Amino acid sequence: xxxxxxxxxxxxxxxxxxxxxxxxxxxxxxxSNSNKNRNTTSDRRGxxxxxxxxxxxMPAAVVVSPVQRLFDTCKDVFALSGTGIVPTPxxxxxxxxxxxxxxxxxxxxxxxxxxxxxPVIRQAPPITYLHIHECEKFSMGIFCLxxxxxxxxHNHPGMTVFSKLLFGTMHIKSYDWVVNVPSNASTAVDSSQxxxxxxxxxxxxxxxxxxxxxxxxxxxYPADGGNMHCFTAVTACAVLDVLxxxxxxxxxxxxxxxxxxxxxxxxxxxxxxxxxxxxKHAWLQEREKPEDLTVVGALYTGPExxxx
Length: 308
Ligand SMILES: [Fe+2]
Fold this sequence. Notes:
Residues 20-57 are annotated as: Disordered. It is an enzyme of class 1 (oxidoreductase). The protein is 22% helix and 29% strand. By secondary structure, it is an alpha+beta fold. It folds into two domains: 6-57, no CATH class; 66-298, Jelly Rolls. The strands form three sheets. The protein has a six-stranded mixed sheet, with helices on one face. Helix 4 (66-77) runs antiparallel to helix 5. It starts with 5 loop residues before the first helix and ends in a 10-residue tail after the last strand. The model is unreliable at 1-41 (pLDDT under 50). It binds fe (ii) ion.
């Protein structure tokens, strides 16, 4: 069988070309067997040409960047996204697996970037947010915290949130609401001042630990997994956040900030917790956005995402 030309290659699919390559190889073996002892210049040229031929027939590998893979996976995982809608367990695992593989360089980050520098003055250092993508189904972005930077305690109403620590060490403290326990604001009494205290609600600690990269992606859900959390940078660190659905004031998904108080600070009629569990519970009180919280936006400079 004759050798395929470039024009032939363009007209054939890969399966046919593989078949033809095999036949060519068999032909070559036959020739080779009948001329075992010959090793001429033309043979060497023929080998080179056949190598080039095989190279041309290899399909070009399609390289998908990790952040593009993340975007494509989010589109699939959050296709039915809405308030309180949690993706199925297999979709959750799919996204977790993609996030587990993401490295700082995949999103254009190094710890030497200026927004990770220690604060010059003794006040809450600004946090930088690198916006990657937002649509009505999900959002992707990176919080960059210098040492001692704090994202104060806040909630994620009706949302599923994936947080991947890209580098550094971060302390995470998170809570979930305790249900079926009275949290009636009008009966919350500050035990030290014997005065009623408005708007406190009982929550249970879910996480209270330092995390150092590389570590597993953490996931929170509308009603568990630590829906209210606070991030404190032990060292400079960066966390890639994926939210599905994203915050939306028109759809009632506001970001609310909280103070947390020890369980023993208030007494609420009917709200009891076993003695050994008290330090795992806290009263949360809504607050305004903290005045010393500064989150500045910066341009995401990592690989581009193609929105198909
Ligand atoms: Fe958060």
